[in-house]
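Predict the structure of Prepilin-type N-terminal cleavage/methylation domain-containing protein.
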Amino acid sequence: MLLRRIVNERRNENGLTLMEVLVVVVILGIIAAIAVPSILGMIEKVEADVCAVNRLEVERLYEREIVLHSSTHSEVLFSAFIQEHVLEPCPVEGVYMYKDGNVECSEHVHHSDKEDEGEEVPFL
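Done. Here is the predicted structure for Prepilin-type N-terminal cleavage/methylation domain-containing protein.
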């Protein structure tokens, strides 16, 4: 009987109580606090991956260009090649450079460079 009375009273109410609204807002805040950093991290990783793929493509095309024209690398030749052929540069506007046979980005470092930096022994 008590349960029926509570259900009937609940049906007659219009809207939500302040406490119910606060609980929903707190739950949404917790979900947002967890989700937003994860999404931002994924976006940065995807941008780095896109840049890595673009660098490999530029490197492959540039080396093919050098072989086809029987020339050697120079900064002027690489800059002209980039302006003429590269349609998809780094997604965060990094600048491509050709060093030691590899195309590098001013914004993204190679994964091997990151691993070298992370080899420090942590303080215990």
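DSSP finds four helices and two strands in the chain.
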